[in-house]
Design goal:
The protein is mostly helical. The protein has helices spanning 3-6, 18-31, 37-51, 64-190, 203-206, 215-268, 292-315, 323-365, 377-382, 385-440, 447-450. It is found in: Cell junction; Cytoplasm, Cytoskeleton, Microtubule organizing center, Centrosome.
């Protein structure tokens, strides 16, 4: 049964209404009759004695004192009746006022129950969203850890591949250098500059007889000796000049080729060791009728290829980002970071409001709805200033931790993205380097095949 039903007061009948008075007077007229006057008088005196009125009342007496006593008793009864009627009216007013307050309290209780139901529903929805966000955060953290592990594995694999590739490259380079040294030594030994001297055997040396010679023979012999010395000297100078011109052409061909390789490697952004051009300059050491013309043609082709490479680099050079573009991108990134900070502050404020509303709903669930109007001593003892300060400190520390975790997660995601980009670039460079190395070390016969 409801507590208000215990004090439920129904509609009360007015004691001064005509219906009530008529019934009362009819019952009073039947109470005393001439036959029962003595008994009724005695009963009235007993009742008056019990209520403290002046007694005894002698209704048969003719004395003035007895009559005055009767009048005083009736006057007292009338005054008491008026007082009772006044008290009754006050009670009726109090009852009506209580009924009105009861209706107001019932309406307020119904309204509070509705609000509490709405708050409970909102609390459940918010709790479901919070649980979903926590699950999503856990999934993201797990995915981040897995990505970190995969990236670390890829990094170790790339480092191992890089070390293995560098080791094999150094090994091949050392072997190639040794082979080139042996070839150079053998070629230098076979193709030394040997200036041959022209020795003319004449009959003067075999059939000369100094004692039998005369002055004319001596003059002829000296003339032929001078002519032979001049011919030998001229041939020696021509051979030296020929060798110097060959060396000049070889140096020119090697310089042009080095310049062309440097331009190609600089344009492709590849660092590579320079190759030995000794084998390719072998035609410059041959006689003119056996390959000298082809050597000059090789120089012309190389100059034409160098001119082509320069034109290609000038016309088809890839466009890069300018400083203004980079500044605009950096400004855009800074603006995005500021917007992210503002959004994080808004999230923290909303979370504080949500926690405050949640605490209020929990207090209502625990039966503390009327504590704000009429707080009990126990509730006043439970809710203290120290505990409020502790709860505020805990809430601020939790908000700060969540904010730090979010910043750390964003920083880690940015680092992971940068590491993945660097790994992709390094892999591309390694692939280009391996392709260049295989292409440059492949045996070739003509310059067109080289380039």
């Amino acid at each position: 049964m409801d507590e208000l039903e215990l004090y439920d007061l129904g509609p009360l009948e007015d004691p001064l209404s005509p219906t009530h008075l008529d019934g009362h007077y009819t019952e009073a007229e039947k109470f005393c009759t001439p036959d029962s006057l003595a008994a009724s008088s005695n009963y009235i005196n007993i009742l008056l004695t019990s209520y403290g009125y002046p007694i005894p009342l002698d209704f048969d007496s003719t004395e003035a004192d007895d009559k005055c006593r009767i009048v005083n008793c009736l006057y007292t009864l009338l005054n008491d009746r008026k007082k009772d009627e006044k008290d009754r009216e006050e009670c009726i007013q109090a009852i009506n006022r209580v009924n009105k307050e009861k209706k107001e309290l019932e309406d307020q209780l119904i309204k509070s129950k509705r609000e509490l139901a709405l708050k409970d529903k909102h609390n459940k929805d918010t709790r479901a969203k919070l649980e979903a966000s926590e699950v999503n955060l856990k999934n993201q953290s797990m995915q981040t850890t897995r990505m970190k592990e995969e990236i670390s594995k890829l990094k170790h694999n790339m480092q191992y591949m890089k070390a293995q590739y560098s080791h094999e490259t150094k090994k091949h380079e050392n072997e190639l250098a040794k082979v080139q040294e042996r070839l150079i030594k053998s070629m230098n030994q076979r193709n030394k500059v040997n200036v041959s001297y022209l020795d003319i055997n004449t009959h003067f040396e075999t059939t000369t007889n100094i004692e039998a010679d005369n002055d004319q023979v001596v003059q002829i012999r000296s003339m032929y000796t001078d002519l032979l010395a001049k011919s030998n000297n001229k041939e020696r100078s021509l051979r030296i000049e020929n060798e110097e011109s060959r060396k000049g052409l070889t140096t020119l061909f090697t310089s042009i080729r080095r310049l062309l390789e440097d331009q190609m490697h600089r344009f492709d952004e590849i660092k590579q060791q320079k190759r030995d051009a000794y084998d390719e300059t072998a035609r410059f050491r041959l006689p003119r009728d056996m390959g000298g013309k082809e050597a000059l043609k090789m120089i012309d082709d190389l100059l034409a290829r160098l001119r082509q490479e320069w034109e290609y680099q000038i016309q088809d050079q890839p466009k890069q980002f300018t400083e203004d573009d980079m500044k605009e991108k950096l400004d855009h990134i800074m603006n995005l970071e500021e917007e992210i900070e503002d959004l994080l502050d808004v999230i923290d404020k909303n979370k504080e409001e949500y926690e405050a509303s949640t605490a209020m709903y929990r207090r209502f669930e625990q039966g503390g709805f009327f504590d704000t109007l009429y707080p009990t001593p126990n509730a006043a003892l439970v809710i203290s200033d120290s505990e409020d300060s502790v709860e505020e400190l805990q809430s601020t520390s939790a908000i700060h931790k969540n904010r730090l975790l979010k910043k750390k997660q964003l920083r880690e995601q940015r680092n992971i993205t940068n590491a993945a980009i660097e790994l992709g670039q390094e892999r591309a460079k390694l692939e280009v380097g391996s392709y260049r190395h295989n292409r440059d070390h492949f045996p070739q016969e003509d310059l067109t095949h080289i380039i």
